[in-house]
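To the wet lab folks,

You asked to see what we're planning to order before we commit. Fair enough. Below is the target structure as tokens, and below that is the sequence we designed to fit it. If anything looks off to you, flag it before the synthesis order goes out.
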């Protein structure tokens, strides 16, 4: 007979951002618990609201699966003495298995006899096992936790009730002073306590008490109400998935309503209004069919529509207060020039171990000019990037960003345009923060992308030089995200930027010494290169590139990010070819031999007069045809040129004894191997590839 089990953990209201990950965690842990306990089931249906985490497990087996196992003990010669009596080893073994020596059997394994106990473990009834699920509840982890009363248990919020019902019977257990039973609680203000008579009745029982426990149904309910409201008023309500998720986890019985604000506030930039509504008040903003912001908002109440006008009025008052502040800040900021704000940055610390924000901008001016030169920006784009770098942090000390920190960059763009800066400069000010997350949107302009790179390079290099290197999960300055941003921007724009040479060019500028006088950034270049390479690994892993190809790519001597990404793509495509194995093996053979030699680059002069057979001359000629321009080739061309060496290399090894008795001949051979190996390693660490 299949059973249904209901588990509900009733809590004080949880933060909205915790609800969804918590119910997912509970499902995962409960599933693992049931499998560990050998209890089969059909499915686990999750329910969640701000006050409860619930599982409805259907198709549960009557009992644990029985176990039949054969337990191996000591060898027969250890288990019995010469007279055939059981030894202490055999007696102890059988006792440990809950048996006695009479239950022992002999089995031969690879010519040796061993003692075995055949065990049959009957499964316990499911009702006897389920109380242990309390350990699943108490072992859950949360981003923040709290204690209450005199208890030592730390949890996201205090546990107020527990429901544990198998079909129609209570499965008892206790957590702290809370005993599991069948009593759940309805909506805090509209509902009452409810007795769950049967586990299958849960959803319907709670709905009678004004709780929609199915998060998906609750979300659909909100969307439907918003859609109807929008249709009735001919509005376009912007429902962002993240805000909808948050609002959904704040309510148990949603009622959608609309409010208004004065039209005069529409003179404030739309981003400010949207931020005030969306981020501060959790309101959905409204536009007309032309996409223009309207003086209305849509919100969701946790309750019914009783006295809804009073609720609307209260929300309008709160929003108006926020908008009044925003208008004041907006007007105050416009009284000052950009230079006024830039000069204020001389007293604002970027970090007390590094410099002021003003000095950071001075460094970035140098860096962005070098980047612009290396990636081939036009003269106009370079000038725009340099101008943006001179002012791009100015909005940090405006009144508006002081109040709405999430608008940094956005207000920089708005104010720059108001003060007459070129649109390209203003856009770059906003885009330099991008991507705002590892997978976030990238800058859409080349000027913005160059400034974003410059800002990120400066942050990473100076924090490394100041000894603040991310370790483990500790990354307070988001340097990993900034490094991923560098990788993604270079990939998006197809910009070649060799890391070592590029970072050296940032530092050697003689103006640089005054901008970060106490930091030895040069000493950290290799560490920064490795750090950024690790982010290349992350990007390639996200693209499901084979791990050996990733290793080969990032361990190449070439440290150009774009080259690494492109060479990984080339290897991924070529790995399916018929000749890939032969090519890799031929090239790998060269690399393996070359490690036996130690020549400086200037000593790699090969003497054709020391050749002992035609295969040496043939390989020499092919290598000479590609070596001078190899490092400037695209990865696909480089691979094809290396592939073209495979046959001459095989012929070479068939006819040539590399480690010749003649020292001069041997060194000539080794120089050829080192020269080829240098080309191979520039493309990838070929010896990291796995071929079958």
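Sequence we intend to order:
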């Amino acid at each position: 007979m299949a059973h249904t089990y209901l588990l509900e953990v009733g809590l004080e209201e949880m933060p909205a951002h915790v609800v969804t990950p918590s119910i997912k965690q509970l499902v995962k842990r409960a599933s693992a618990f049931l499998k560990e306990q050998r209890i089969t089931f059909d499915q686990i249906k999750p329910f969640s609201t701000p006050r409860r985490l619930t599982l409805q497990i259907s198709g549960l087996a009557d009992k644990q699966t029985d176990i039949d196992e054969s337990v191996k003990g000591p060898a027969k010669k250890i288990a019995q003495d010469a007279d055939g009596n059981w030894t202490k080893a055999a007696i102890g073994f059988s006792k440990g298995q809950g048996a006695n020596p009479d239950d022992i059997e002999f089995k031969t394994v690879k010519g040796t006899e061993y003692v075995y106990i055949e065990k049959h473990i009957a499964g316990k009834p499911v009702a006897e096992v389920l109380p242990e699920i309390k350990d699943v509840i108490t072992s859950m982890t949360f981003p923040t936790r709290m204690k209450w009363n005199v208890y030592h248990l730390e949890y996201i919020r205090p546990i107020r009730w527990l429901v544990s019902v198998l079909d129609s019977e209570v499965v008892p257990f206790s957590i702290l002073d809370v005993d599991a039973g069948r009593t759940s609680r309805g909506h805090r203000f509209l509902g009452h306590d409810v007795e769950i008579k049967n586990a299958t009745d849960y959803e319907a029982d709670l709905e009678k008490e004004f709780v929609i426990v199915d998060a998906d149904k609750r979300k659909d309910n909100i969307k439907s109400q918003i859609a109807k409201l929008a249709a009735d008023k001919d509005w376009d309500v912007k429902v962002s998935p993240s805000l909808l998720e948050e609002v959904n986890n704040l309510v148990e019985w949603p009622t959608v309503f609309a409010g208004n604000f004065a039209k005069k506030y529409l003179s404030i930039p739309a981003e400010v209004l949207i931020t005030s509504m969306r981020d501060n008040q959790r309101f959905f903003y409204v536009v007309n069919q032309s996409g223009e912001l309207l003086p209305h908002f849509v919100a969701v109440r946790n309750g019914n529509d009783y006295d809804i006008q009073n609720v609307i009025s209260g929300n309008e008052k709160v929003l108006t207060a926020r908008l009044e502040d925003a208008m004041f800040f907006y007007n105050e900021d416009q009284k000052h020039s950009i230079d006024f704000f830039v000069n204020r940055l001389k007293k604002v610390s970027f970090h007390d171990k590094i410099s002021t924000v003003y000095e950071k901008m001075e460094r970035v001016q140098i860096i962005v000019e070098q980047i612009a030169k290396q990636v081939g920006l036009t003269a106009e784009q370079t000038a725009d990037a340099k101008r943006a770098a001179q002012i791009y942090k100015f909005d940090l000390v405006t009144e508006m960003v002081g109040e709405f920190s999430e608008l940094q960059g956005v207000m920089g763009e708005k104010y720059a345009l108001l003060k007459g800066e070129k649109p390209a400069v203003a856009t770059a000010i906003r885009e330099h923060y991008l991507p705002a997350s590892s997978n976030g949107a990238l800058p859409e302009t080349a000027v913005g992308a160059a400034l974003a790179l410059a800002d990120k390079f400066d942050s990473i290099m100076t924090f490394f030089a100041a000894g603040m290197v991310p370790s483990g999960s500790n990354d307070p300055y988001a340097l990993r995200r900034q490094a991923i941003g560098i990788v993604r921007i270079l990939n998006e724009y197809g910009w070649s930027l060799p890391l070592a040479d590029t970072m050296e060019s940032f530092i050697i500028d003689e103006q640089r010494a005054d901008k970060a006088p106490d930091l030895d950034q040069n000493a950290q270049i290799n560490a920064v290169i490795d750090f950024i390479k690790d982010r290349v690994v992350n990007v390639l892993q996200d693209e499901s590139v084979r791990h050996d190809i990733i290793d080969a790519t990032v361990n190449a001597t070439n440290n150009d990010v774009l080259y690494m990404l492109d060479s990984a793509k080339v290897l991924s495509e070529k790995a399916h070819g018929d000749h890939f194995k032969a090519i890799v093996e031929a090239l790998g053979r060269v690399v393996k031999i070359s490690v036996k030699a130690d020549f400086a680059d200037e000593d790699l002069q090969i003497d054709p007069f020391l050749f002992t057979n035609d295969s040496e001359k043939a390989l020499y000629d092919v290598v000479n045809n590609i070596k001078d321009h190899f490092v400037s080739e695209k990865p696909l061309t480089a691979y094809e040129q290396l592939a073209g060496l495979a046959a001459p290399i095989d012929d070479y090894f068939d006819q040539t004894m590399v480690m010749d008795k003649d020292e001069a001949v041997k060194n000539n051979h080794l120089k050829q191997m080192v020269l080829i190996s240098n080309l191979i390693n520039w493309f990838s660490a070929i010896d990291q590839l796995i071929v079958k």
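Structural context that might help your review: The mean pLDDT is 93. The CA atoms of residues 42 and 59 lie 5 Å apart.

Thanks,
Computational group
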